[in-house]
Amino acid sequence: MKLSPKRIMMFAAMLLFLIGLLVAAVYLKNVADYKKAVKETVFNDIDLSRIPDGVFAGEYDVDFVYAKVEVTVRNGVITNIDILEHENGRGSPAEIVADRIVEEQKIDVDEVSGATNSSIVIKKAVENALMGEE
């Protein structure tokens, strides 16, 4: 049985459509997992007076957003936060969160409007640095 060019094109179109559906389903699953990871992120209270002087590295990754930071502590005070890496899509305004943490001397500062997920990831990277988790 010989297949006509029209039938071959139809099969190819259906195959491409099914592949597209599969790719879309995987992408949507990844987005859902990412949103869930951000939503389930919790912050612990850290007693800065118990953190020794030094520079500490930490990171946090929820697939679509990632941050790696260095946190400097002197005499129980966060004196500086350097954002070494921040993969964020459109969330780069969230980097101001590092300044807020230094100003307020606590991790759980207000997120940046429009960059909430990046804000959360940066804050958790700072916490992980102070807790010795990378």
Structure write-up:
The protein has about 130 residues and is α+β, with helices and mostly antiparallel strands. It has helices at about 5-40, 95-105, 115-130, and strands at about 55-60, 65-75, 75-85.
List the SSEs and their pairings.
Layout: H1 5-39, E1 54-61, E2 66-74, E3 77-87, H2 96-104, H3 116-130
Antiparallel strand pairs: 1-2, 2-3
CATH topology of the domain at 48-130: Sufe protein. Chain: A
Query: Stretches where pLDDT falls below 50 for ≥5 residues?
Result: none
Per DSSP, the total helix count is 3
Order of helices and strands: HEEEHH
Radius of gyration: 22 Å
| Helical fraction | 40-55%
Structural class: alpha+beta
Instruction: Look at the structure and give the CATH class of the domain at 48-130.
Output: Alpha Beta
Shape summary: rod-shaped
Distance between the termini: 62 Å
Main beta sheet strand tally, sense and closure: 3 strands, antiparallel
Strand sequence of the main sheet, in spatial order?
Answer: 1-2-3
Q: Indicate the CATH architecture of the domain at 48-130.
A: Alpha-Beta Complex
